[in-house]
Amino acid sequence: ELKHWYWKYCWRSKGSKKIESIGCPIKKVRAVERAIAANFTQKEIYNFIVEDKSAPPPT
Asked: How many CA atoms lie within 13 A of 46 on its CB side?
């Protein structure tokens, strides 16, 4: 199950066990994965989504 709000935004359920992308660029997905792993705030993660940044700053 997708627990983080970003993944719920980026993916939607399709059938019982399938999910599909709703158009999140892979650069943004990778940046958000790193931001989640680094425990960035939701606001910081949101900024990565809406701004033209390919990666979060190094931690």
From this structure: 4
What confidence category does residue 12 fall into, taking pLDDT thresholds of 50, 70 and 90?
A: low
Q: Is 55 part of any domain?
A: yes
What tens digit of pLDDT does each residue of 22-43 get? Answer: 566 777 777 778 888 899 888 8
Find the length of the chain. 59
Looking at the structure of the chain, the number of domains it has is 1
| Tokens (6 digits) for 39 | 């425990």
Global pTM? 0.47
Q: Give the number of other Cβ atoms within 10 Å of residue 23's Cβ.
A: 6
